[in-house]
From TrEMBL, chain A:
Adenosylcob(III)alamin binds at residues 194, 246, 296, 402. The basic unit is a heterodimer which dimerizes to form tetramers. The heterotetramers trimerize; 6 large subunits form a core ring with 6 small subunits projecting outwards. Binds between the large and small subunits. It is found in: Bacterial microcompartment. This is Ethanolamine ammonia-lyase large subunit. Catalyzes the deamination of various vicinal amino-alcohols to oxo compounds. Allows this organism to utilize ethanolamine as the sole source of nitrogen and carbon in the presence of vitamin B12. It comes from the Bacteria. GO terms for molecular function: ethanolamine ammonia-lyase activity. The gene is eutB. It catalyses: ethanolamine = acetaldehyde + NH4(+). Coiled coil: none annotated. It comes from Methylobacterium aerolatum. Belongs to the EutB family. Its EC number is 4.3.1.7.
Automatic annotation (TrEMBL), chain B:
Its main location: other. Its cofactor is adenosylcob(III)alamin. It is an enzyme of class 4 (lyase). The lineage of its organism: Bacteria, Pseudomonadati, Pseudomonadota, Alphaproteobacteria, Hyphomicrobiales. It comes from the Bacteria. It comes from Methylobacterium aerolatum. Its EC number is 4.3.1.7. The basic unit is a heterodimer which dimerizes to form tetramers. The heterotetramers trimerize; 6 large subunits form a core ring with 6 small subunits projecting outwards. One of its GO terms (molecular function) is ethanolamine ammonia-lyase activity. This is Ethanolamine ammonia-lyase small subunit. It is found in: Bacterial microcompartment. Pathway: Amine and polyamine degradation; ethanolamine degradation. Belongs to the EutC family.
Amino acid sequence: MAYRCDLGGERHRFPDLKAVLAAASPLRSGDELAGLAAASDAMRVAARTVLADLPLKTFLTEAVVPYEEDEVTRLIIDGHDAAAFAPVSHLTVGGFRDWLLGPEADAATLAALAPGLTPEMVAAVSKLMRLQDLVVVARRCRVTTAFRTTIGLPGRLATRLQPNHPADDPRGVAASVIDGLLYGAGDAVIGINPASDDVETAIALTTMLDEMRQHYAIPTQTCVLTHVTNALAIIERGAPVDLVFQSVAGTEAANRGFGIDLAVLAEAHDAARSLNRGTVGDNAMYFETGQGSALSADAHHGVDQQTVEARAYAVARAFRPLLVNTVVGFIGPEYLYDGKQITRAGLEDHFCGKLLGLPMGCDVCYTNHAEADQDDMDGLMLLLTQAGCSFLITVPGSDDVMLNYQSLSFHDLLALRSLFGVRAAPEFEAWLDRMGMGAPEGPARLLEAPHPSLARLFDRGDAAR
Amino acid sequence: MKPDPDTLPDGPLRTDLTQDDRWAALRRATPARIGLGRTGDALPLRPMLDFQLAHAQARDAVHAVLDVEALAAALPPHPVLRVHSAAPDRPTYLRRPDLGRRLDDASIATLEEAAAARAQDGGQGFDLVFVIADGLSAKAVASHAVPVIHACLALLDGYRIAPIVLAEQGRVALGDPVGERLGARLSVVLIGERPGLSVADSLGLYLTYGPRPGRRDSERNCISNVHGRGGLTPDLAAAKVAWFVREALRRGLTGVALKDGIEEALLEGEAGRLPGGSP
C-alpha cells in the first residue's frame, strides 16, 4: 500500500510501509548506502508524520519482509501475543509514543506488554522519539535474567570483561582478566573473542577461563565467543561451557550469511541448558547484533538498517538469553558514519531491545575509520547508564588489541559507578566485598595465590614474549 | 605502556601492583593496555596521551593521501598505469564502499588503451596484474608496497606481468574490473589494511583468479599483516605470493579451495618464520 503526505507545500509519496520506515529514520550512512534514506530533511519529517498516524496493528498485517520467504518474519507473526498487545492495540504509532512517555507505562505494564510488541512496532515508535525519550522509556523497562549473577536489577550496571589477545595466548588473556577484576569488571560475563575459529583453541580458552573462575571462586559466567556450531562441538567434547554465543541478524538470509538458522540456535539453546551450570538462573545464551549486518550481507530486503536490527531482537528473545548487546560502532562508517550516528543508534538499539523484553547491553565502540573518538564514547556511556542499560563491554585501556577497535575501559566503569551510584550484580558485588577489593590491600590477594597460569608467568619472569 | 607510579592516587582499589615485579610479568604476556594505574577514577594522563597518539596515528593513516608520484618513480623499469576509483574523495570513499570497487570513466579508458596497445603489438594476454591501492592506510602502501613488489618480481621471472596499476581510493574488489579490462588471468591487489592502535601501516595482499566484477570474497586468497612490528616481511609475503601465483594459474582458481597446502609448502625449510605459528 502506498502512502502520501502533504507538508509545507510539498507532496511526499512513499510506495510502501518499509519506505515510510526508512525515510522516517534519522540520517545514517547505511541507509544512504542502501539508497533508502529520505531524499531531504523535509521528506524525513513527512515520513514521520505518516508514521504517527499509522495504526500499530498495521504491522501485524503488513510484513516488511515477506512471511513466505523469511523465517524471522514467521517467528515474529506466529509468536505474537495478541492478549499482551491488547492494551495498546487501538493506538497509532504516534499515540503509542505518547502512551510510552505517559504515567501509565510503568515497569510492570511494559514487562507485560513486551510479548505483544513486534520489532517493527518498536522500531517505528523509536523513529518518533528524541534521545531523551529513548532514555526515559528504556529506563522504565525492567528485564531481569540470571545464570551465576543476576542481570538487570534496579540500580545495577554489569560489565562484560573482554580480555582478547591477538594470538589467543591463555597467559595474555589471564593477565587482562586480572586487570579487569581489579576494577570490579566481569559480572555480566568474562567473554573472549578468539582470534582463531579453531575448536581446539576455543576448548583451551574455555577450560582456562573456567579454572580461573573456580580458582578465585568468582560468581560469574565465562564465554568464548565462537560460532554456535563450534560451541556445540565444544560441548560435545565435554569442555566447561557456561554461555553459548552467536551473532544474529534480522532476516533469514542475513542469518544464513552467519551460517545459522533458528533450528541450529534452538539446538544450541537446548545443549547449553542441558549442562545446567547456572546457580541462580538458567538463561544460557549470549547474542550480539549490530545495525548494518543485514545490509553488509546484502540481505536487508530493502528495509532500513534500524528496523532490520530490531528484528534481530525477535530472534534473540526466542532463546531466553542472559545477555544481548549491540556492537554499535564496530561495523564501520559506511553504516554509522560518526559519533552522532553511533550515539543515536546505540540508544535506539537499547530502547528497542528493552521494549521487546531483552536484557540489553551495548558495546560502546568505534573503529579508526569512523569520525568518532573517546569523547563520543563518554557521551554514549553516560546516556546508556542513565537509560538503565543492563551491561557494557569493557577492555583494558579501551583498546581491543585483537579486534583493532576501541571500546570502553575498566576506568570508565569506575566513573559510572561513582557518578550514578550504579552497582555490580549482587552476587559479584558480594565477592568483591569478600575479596576486600574495595580496600587498598585487597587487589594484591588476586596475586598472592595466583591462578597456576599466572604463577608460571611470575616464575618465568620474562615468560610469554 | 609504562604507567607512572607517581600518578597513582590513594583510595579504593589503589594498588602498588604497577610497581610489582609480578605486574611487569603480566604486562609482558599481552600487548593489551593493562596495569595503567588511576587518577581518581580516571586514566592517568600519560597513558591517556599514549592512547590519543595511537588513535591519531591510526586516523592520520586512514586520511593520508597516497603519494602516487613517489610510487610511480620507484617501480620502473616495470611500466606503470594510474587509475582512480569512482569514489572522488576520502569522505565519499568511507561512506560508499561500492564506489571504491568501481573504476571512474577516465581509468576505464586508460586500461582499455593499454589492453589495445598490447594486442596491436601482437603480445599475448597477461598472466597477472599487480594493483597497488591505498585502501584504508596509504601509509602501509608507502612503507611496504615497493619492497613487496620488487621481491615478487624477482620470484616471478617468466610470467607475463601487466603494467603495475596504481589505484587511488580503491577497495580490494577494484582489482576485479582492473584485471578484467587488462585481460589478466590473475590479479594481485596490495592494499592498506584498516589501522589499529598498535599497527597503522599494515599491508594486505589479495589474489583473485579470473578477476571480474561480482567475484566473492570466498574466491580470493589473502595474505595479511605485512608490517614492521612483528608482521610478515616483504620477502616472506613474496614467497607466499609466488606459491599462490603458480598454483592459481596451474589449477585455474583462487579462494577457499586453494588455501590448503600453502602452510606445508612454506614450512619446508622455513619453520618458525610463519605468522600465526607460535610467537
